[in-house]
Amino acid sequence: MAMDKVPNQWGTGRFHLLKTRRNIRILNASTIDSHRIEKLRLYLRSFFTLPVKISSPFARPNPKYLRDEKTGQKFHLNTHDESVEYESLLKVALQYIQKRDYTVLMIVDYPLVEQNGDRFDPILGRALNQRTCVAQVQYRDLDFFATCAHEIMHNIGVDHTTNAKCLMNPCGSDIPLLADHNLKKLQHFLGFGNDKKFKRSRYADLCRMWWKIFDRSDVVALRAFREIELRMS
Ligand SMILES: [Zn+2]
């Protein structure tokens, strides 16, 4: 069996994208409405050019525990004040990876923390072991969706950048897009090599979807849209 066909279950190396394993799964552990989740699905689909599925298995999610509505299974979460320690969430996310999923993005609508020794540091999202990541719902779609894409990019194997026009900038970016060098990494990951058509058709798709996802009164969304148009030409 070729090495690149072997799914790595131990987290020591990179998961490859396969024809049979290319879904991004949104694991909804939040209480946000289905309309907003659908917008997130559209955004991630155009951003990654991969199929995006949605699972909402939990009954009345809360910061103490998650309970699977169908099986009754209850997962206790590590809570610190009103926040949840993210690793306890990702342990749950691992249980919901399906055979055809490349990665699972869990979304929650309470604050997240990362434990560093005795300290609990607030975070907006985190990716772990290449198959799971988590993001906290934020007030603005644009910020929230960009955090989701940022974490999935980590799952793909892309690190932070200092480029202010890239959502892989850990301090936040001016626009929720990828700088060229990271877009190339995504293109390579997706198996498009140096195909020049990839970039153009992805931006065209983002353009088509943009105003189905974002509000025209959002100035950052408008700025990003103009940037996409520019990059297409
Ligand atoms: Zn990051």
Structural commentary:
This protein is of the alpha/beta class and 233 residues long. The chain has a single domain (3-193), classed as Collagenase (Catalytic Domain) (3-Layer(aba) Sandwich). The chain is 35% helix and 21% strand. The chain has helices spanning 34-48, 86-94, 141-156, 180-189, 196-213, 219-232, and strands at 23-28, 52-55, 65-67, 74-76, 79-80, 83-85, 101-108, 112-116, 119-123, 125-128, 132-136. The chain has a five-stranded mixed beta sheet, with helices on both faces. A four-stranded mixed beta sheet has the order 5-6-8-9. A two-stranded antiparallel ribbon has the order 3-4. Helix 1 runs antiparallel to helix 5 (196-213) and helix 5 runs antiparallel to helix 6. The longest helix has 18 residues, at 196-213. Residues 1-12 have low confidence and may be disordered. The structure holds zinc ion. Residues 150, 154, 160, 170 line the site of zinc ion (ZN).
User: What is the C-level CATH assignment?
Assistant: Alpha Beta
Please identify the structural class as seen in this structure.
Answer: alpha/beta
> Hetero groups bound?
zinc ion
Strand order of the largest sheet: 2-1-7-11-10
**Shape, principal axes of CA atoms:** globular
Tell me what portion of residues adopts beta-strand conformation: 15-25%
Count of the domains: 1
Q: Please trace the helix and strand order, writing H or E for each element.
A: EHEEEEEHEEEEEHHHH
Number of strands: 11
CATH superfamily: Collagenase (Catalytic Domain)
